[in-house]
Specification:
5 strands; Helicase, Ruva Protein, domain 3; DNA polymerase, domain 1; globular; about 200 residues; OB fold (Dihydrolipoamide Acetyltransferase, E2P); alpha+beta; 3 domains
Length: about 200
Amino acid sequence: MIGSLRGKIVSKTPPQLTLDVAGVGYELEAPMSTFFHLPAVGQEVQLLTHLVVREDAHLLYAFGTADERRLFRGLLKVSGIGPKIALALLSGISVDAFVLCVQNEDVDALVRVPGIGRKTAERLLVEMRDRFSGTTPGLAPAANAAPASPEAEAYGALVALGYRPAEATRLLKGAGTGTHSTEELIRRALQSAARD
């Protein structure tokens, strides 16, 4: 099992990136929450990984935090949830927001994530409920959850408005992430979309 990789970023094309580790290029898929915090191409980064072995492929998924990887692995244990849906969930909602959704049984918030239907959302709530009751080791309890970054919140809002993940990422890059508030990022991204 490959637990983590440290290397230079060769390319970034959400949700995929290539990491050069001692001359070997690893193709990884990562949620948008990880992409927002990646350094520029050519810079070094360390990412936690999860290897999925299928008959036709070995797929490596990358995460910026242990909580993201832990939630990804937990989602894979839910019947009917594969890596693509787990990645979509992590791209559309933060770990802390997901925990809050489960604790509050908020089906509507989960359904707003692209690729998640009502039945899947209900199954997630039922199967994940016990894991997040009270204080869950490794995942911050919702009451103490740190707020999501403005970029992550703006990304979630654009996806909820119906933009594809890659399109939302492009719009946010054009909006000039950095010191802007969530509202300002959304406003700039929507203005950019209207000009396109």
